[in-house]
């Protein structure tokens, strides 16, 4: 499915449409005035209100059911499209630049221009992410080409098409193509039309982008990141349950999901005692939320069986498809995903030494609220490279005005122009 100038086309029109894309976008840059963020926010807020009025429940509810997510999750994510949320984002990320032309000195002015054309290669682990990535580009006036992620359920095209209905001016700034990742030449062609390629995804996506992005274009990367939790013995059962709910909701597929838990201790006995405490809570939450696919439950059983064959049985706590592995090392690593976590010891004074080598991978750390020496721990995590520290269970929150991996997207999607008065 293709979205081109507000109209839907079948995929067999792809080559024909791409052949006219460059000329259409250059005409937009030449003939259209500057797209204001007020125009974009007004359209987004109208669409947000329609979502909150249940106009899209026929699409949203089956999706939520398939993911076993509560309606409150949709409300939380949709809030990022609201007028209040987007105005807050503009205020935080653009600051005084949002006001237009600013005086640099007596003879010179300063203002921002959009980069021009953005090519978004979206990841499929968050269903609203492709559309939101385009909205970020629109907020600062860019033309946006979106490559849909594999397995997209049609929500991105639906939202963007309805956004254009709310504000027809946006039809010249949004182009969506359902190009398979195997069509490298087509992806390269689209990338070469852009001033910057926005890449959401893991190491493979980043490596692929570096191979096809033209030297005259730039790459703006979001991901891949690894997140975790950090606790001590003061953590409550309620906090453990909140963390387990977060893990089960995301199945650890988000960059912000906890892959495991570091504990402020050097005692192996404490690690095992903590694992025994977590296991029944984890198993109860997993059963209640029922978000673990049967295929993954079977795969998990094989992975854990293999760990036991390799002699790790004394360090494994598993029940009903979920597992906790107590590890002797302090290496930051991915878990097996799908409700499998590791627990490792990491004293607070070793945080920087252990985590700093992973500075480009670090994102979110959730901690228990009453953790001892909280100020020192938070400072050490930040110095190591962590960009977001939350309460347990809030790893995957979305707040208006939050950064992406410690950077403001809107600042990266513009350039500053300085000119004589």
Structural overview:
The chain is α/β, with parallel strands linked by helices and 421 residues long. The protein folds into two domains: 2-223 and 405-420, Aldehyde Dehydrogenase, Chain A, domain 1; 226-391, Aldehyde Dehydrogenase, Chain A, domain 2 (3-Layer(aba) Sandwich). It is 43% helix and 20% strand. The protein has 15 helices and 17 strands. The protein has helices at residues 14-31, 37-52, 57-67, 71-78, 83-94, 129-139, 155-166, 184-192, 203-212, 237-250, 268-289, 294-312, 351-355, 374-384, 409-412, and strands at 2-4, 7-9, 102-103, 108-114, 117-121, 143-147, 174-177, 196-200, 218-222, 226-231, 258-263, 316-319, 322-326, 340-345, 362-367, 388-391, 414-420. The strands form three sheets. It has a seven-stranded mixed beta sheet with strand order 2-1-7-6-5-8-9, sandwiched between helices. Strands 12-13-14-11-10-15-16 form a seven-stranded mixed beta sheet, with helices on both faces. α2 (37-52) packs antiparallel against α5. It is globular and about 70 Å long. The model has no long low-confidence stretch (mean pLDDT 91).
CATH fold name of the largest domain? Aldehyde Dehydrogenase, Chain A, domain 1
Shape: globular
CATH homolog superfamily of the largest domain: Aldehyde Dehydrogenase, Chain A, domain 1
Largest sheet: 7 strands, mixed
Strand percentage lies at 15-25%
* Cα gyration radius (Å): 23 Å
CATH architecture of the largest domain: 3-Layer(aba) Sandwich
Residue-averaged pLDDT: 91
Q: State the total count of DSSP E strands.
A: 17
Strand line-up of the largest beta sheet: 2-1-7-6-5-8-9
Weakly predicted, low-confidence segments = none
- Count of folded domains: 2
- Determine the fraction of residues in helical runs and give it as a percent range: 40-55%
Distance between the termini: 47 Å
């Amino acid at each position: 499915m293709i979205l081109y100038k507000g109209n839907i086309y079948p995929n067999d029109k792809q080559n024909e449409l791409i052949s006219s894309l460059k000329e259409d976008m250059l005409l937009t840059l030449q003939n259209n005035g500057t797209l204001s963020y007020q125009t974009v926010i007004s359209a987004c807020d109208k669409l947000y209100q329609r979502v909150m009025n249940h106009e899209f429940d026929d699409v949203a509810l089956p999706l939520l059911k398939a993911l076993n997510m509560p309606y409150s999750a949709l409300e939380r994510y949709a809030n990022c499209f609201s007028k209040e949320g987007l105005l807050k984002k503009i205020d935080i990320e653009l600051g005084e630049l949002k006001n237009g032309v600013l005086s640099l000195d007596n003879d010179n002015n300063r203002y921002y221009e959009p980069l021009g054309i953005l090519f978004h290669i979206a990841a499929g682990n968050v269903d609203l992410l492709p559309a939101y990535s385009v909205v970020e580009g629109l907020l600062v006036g860019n033309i946006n080409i979106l490559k849909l992620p594999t397995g997209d359920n049609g929500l991105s095209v639906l939202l963007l098409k309805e956004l254009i209905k709310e504000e027809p001016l946006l039809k010249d700034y949004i182009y969506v193509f359902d190009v398979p990742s195997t069509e490298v030449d087509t992806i390269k062609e689209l990338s070469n039309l852009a001033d910057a390629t926005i890449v959401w995804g893991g190491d493979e996506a980043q490596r692929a982008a570096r191979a096809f992005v033209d030297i005259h274009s730039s790459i703006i990367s979001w991901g891949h990141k690894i997140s975790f939790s950090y606790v001590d013995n003061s953590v409550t059962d309620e906090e453990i349950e909140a963390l387990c709910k977060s893990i089960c909701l995301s199945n650890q597929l988000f960059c912000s999901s906890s892959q495991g838990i570091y504990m402020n201790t050097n005692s192996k006995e404490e690690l095992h005692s903590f694992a025994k405490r977590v296991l029944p809570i984890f198993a109860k939450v997993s059963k209640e939320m029922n978000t673990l696919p049967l295929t993954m439950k079977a795969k998990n059983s094989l992975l854990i069986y293999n760990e036991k064959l390799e002699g790790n049985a004394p360090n494994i706590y598993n029940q009903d498809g979920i597992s906790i592995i107590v590890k002797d090392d302090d290496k930051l690593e991915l878990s097996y995903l799908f409700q499998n976590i590791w627990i490792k010891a990491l004293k607070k004074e070793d945080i920087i030494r252990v985590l700093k080598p992973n500075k480009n991978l670090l994102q979110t750390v959730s901690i228990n609220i009453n953790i001892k020496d909280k100020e020192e721990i938070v400072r050490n995590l930040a110095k190591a490279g962590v960009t977001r520290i939350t309460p347990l269970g809030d790893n995957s929150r979305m707040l208006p005005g939050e950064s992406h991996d410690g950077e403001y997207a809107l600042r990266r999607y513009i350039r500053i122009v300085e000119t004589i008065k």
